[in-house]
């Protein structure tokens, strides 16, 4: 256990800090969940790419810097220290990218990874269907082989970024006689293919971040299939592992929120409940605990280990921490909490953050499913129900 | 930057775990509860493993290891609900004496002929002391009244709190394990109760609390080992996180055991009572919360993403 940074790591931190201070937008961007905000965030992805910061852990050949996970954590810490915007391409860089790195052919890596790292192609995910949310193995959308194409018919829903993104990925049933986890194939598709209709879903805050996707005989070349026909479930589980485990929510995000919460508390200390004060202190502690755990996971992976079902513990922890921190902020704001803009014109980012935080325990596999996984795979309790 | 234990550290902890699993099971706790809570044979076994000399410098006959190793072994002592005063003697008393420059008699500690019973103003008792006996809810703790003059050295308090936190994560692990094993074999409504989500989700929540308390404890041990200015805040963070995880797990574990959990027959109560005791020992929840509060809200500790290891 050696908890000091090397001089090289410190120098790297200084380099990231200087770049971020010079480039992170001074004013917060408009929310990613509308056209204007989406365009601003895509612009930011391209600014990041101009500094070669798109995805620092990827090999240089694919638009990265070939850095290790500790450097990635340092990068993320500095990113959130500087108030860096949410990543418009998170479905690509944090979920699909690592999946392609593990399962893709050399040709697929060359074709998809670099434009992803450079923010030239923004990705949507297309997991859920109306009848297959938490129970993803209930997927029905079909991809029927026709020569060197798949013909996709069906419907996906609650697809993140699908309102505006360029490409999408998901799993589809390629064996019509298959059931549950078998006969599924992981396919990448151009969102502008003929036959795809996107219908943006208005979210509870009124904006449109996710969408329904209707596939009407959409032709997708077979070379867009990842890891072979019928392998979809295994590939999707690996993607979900990246999502829950390490990449999607790096600790810097929550440490930055905890710090802002401390600042908010100081402004409202004279009318804050003692319970809110404790919640603020606990927010710092939990964000730190999440950071320590992430450093431990990173060290384990760098030593050749893997993340297994313990990714579920992470997902439960960060999503419930995020909701709790924003709930505390809403309490501290009191009567001002409902204002979308404060009386001085500033956007009430705590309100936006609180609403978004409510989706955390739902997306990336609901926390009920994560608790089942924890109980069954980590604790060894008997499985029931799931086929 | 490498947040991992070394192979040597893990091997050492596994050795202690295997030894205690083999020699210090629940039947031993029951025997101690009936026949008196200290057993020279158990103590001698710990001495023979070199544990009383773990933190004693090599020139005084010890193993010369550090607080990270000690915390890792304290967690194993918690897992086994060890009654002998190994943690207080070897992982609290010894490093405190060393910090005072007192090296006389350390050879006796290593040899197991001298036990240390560190007394501190924060505790209204002394564990394994020599004064008038006090009765703890934990039948295996031997508490005595506090002498008239005791230390109020914060370093001693931090050592006691750190090692309590380490024991608490081990205790919590053990209680979770007992509840899980019971949930696998207890059948109601035609299936093991562990198949019900009402049980699964509660136990999963304990697992989350424990797994995110552990790295806080290890980080605090490293902070004390490295002598960081911020070590006190990290020790308090560890004590708070470990206490909350242990209390949640204790209450969940008894609930999962149902009426059996309320009996003396089920082993759980030994671990539960030790947890209650250690949650309040060496600074209670309010004390440690206040110290974190002073560091975080008071501004003495740098916070934010770039200060993970401040």
TrEMBL record, chain A:
**Source species of the chain:** Novosphingobium arvoryzae
Q: What is this protein called?
A: Acyl-CoA dehydrogenase
Q: Which residues form the signal peptide?
A: none
Q: Which domain of life is it from?
A: Bacteria
Q: Which residues form the Acyl-CoA dehydrogenase/oxidase N-terminal domain?
A: 6-120
- Gene3D superfamilies (UniProt xref): Acyl-CoA dehydrogenase/oxidase, N-terminal domain, Butyryl-CoA Dehydrogenase, subunit A, domain 2, Butyryl-CoA Dehydrogenase, subunit A, domain 3
One annotated GO molecular function is: flavin adenine dinucleotide binding
Q: Boundaries of each Acyl-CoA oxidase/dehydrogenase middle domain copy?
A: 124-218
- Cofactor or coenzyme needed: FAD
Which Pfam families does the record cross-reference, listed alphabetically? Acyl-CoA_dh_1, Acyl-CoA_dh_M, Acyl-CoA_dh_N
InterPro entries of this UniProt entry? Acyl-CoA_Oxase/DH_mid-dom (IPR006091), Acyl-CoA_Oxase/DH_mid-dom_sf (IPR046373), AcylCo_DH-like_C (IPR036250), AcylCo_DH/oxidase_C (IPR009075), AcylCoA_DH/ox_N (IPR013786), AcylCoA_DH/ox_N_sf (IPR037069), AcylCoA_DH/oxidase_NM_dom_sf (IPR009100), Mycobact_Acyl-CoA_DH (IPR052161)
In the UniProt record, which is one GO cellular component term?
Answer: plasma membrane
Q: Which UniProt keywords apply?
A: FAD, Flavoprotein, Oxidoreductase
Q: Which residues form the Acyl-CoA dehydrogenase/oxidase C-terminal domain?
A: 230-379
Member of which family?
Belongs to the acyl-CoA dehydrogenase family.
Automatic annotation (TrEMBL), chain B:
Q: InterPro entries under this entry?
A: AcylCo_DH-like_C, AcylCo_DH/oxidase_C, AcylCoA_DH/ox_N, AcylCoA_DH/ox_N_sf, AcylCoA_DH/oxidase_NM_dom_sf
Which intervals hold domain Acyl-CoA dehydrogenase/oxidase C-terminal? 157-294
Alphabetically list the UniProt keywords.
FAD, Flavoprotein, Oxidoreductase
Cofactor(s) listed: FAD
> Is Membrane among this UniProt entry's keywords?
no
Q: Which SUPFAM superfamilies does the record match to this protein?
A: Acyl-CoA dehydrogenase C-terminal domain-like, Acyl-CoA dehydrogenase NM domain-like
Is-annotated flag, keyword Flavoprotein? yes
Signal peptide stretch: none
Q: What's this protein's family per the entry?
A: Belongs to the acyl-CoA dehydrogenase family.
Q: This chain belongs to which protein, by name?
A: Acyl-CoA dehydrogenase
